[in-house]
Amino acid sequence: MSPNEPRPKNVLGGPLKACSLDPVTGFFRDGTCRTCPEDVGSHTVCAEVTETFLEFSRKAGNDLSTPVPAYGFPGLRPGDRWCVCAERWLEALEADCAPPVILAATAEAALESVPLPLLQKHATA
After folding, report:
1. pLDDT tens, 14-30?
2. For the chain, how many structural domains are there in total?
3. Domain containing residue 114
């Protein structure tokens, strides 16, 4: 991020906090769920993944559990935090398997797809 860019905000209007540095997440692989126009998936929701969500994601064609060493991806386990696509999180909500959300680490841009009350209802510390 250049010094001239505005600091990204979270869905509560405060500074965007890191989602995870182990494993390192985010479109920019900087630990945050900030986004840009090139992030067509809008990886803006910081979620604490669950086994149910990982299975849902795998069945939807996005296997987040299997390591992919070529991309430095360790594979996720339940309890890991990860920046997930806002639309995928909504799909998981509709399927009754949305993972808990960390509001301080969920980018303000997520509100373009997910209403704040839904995120708040599924928030964890």
Report:
1. 999 999 999 999 999 99
2. 1
3. 1-124
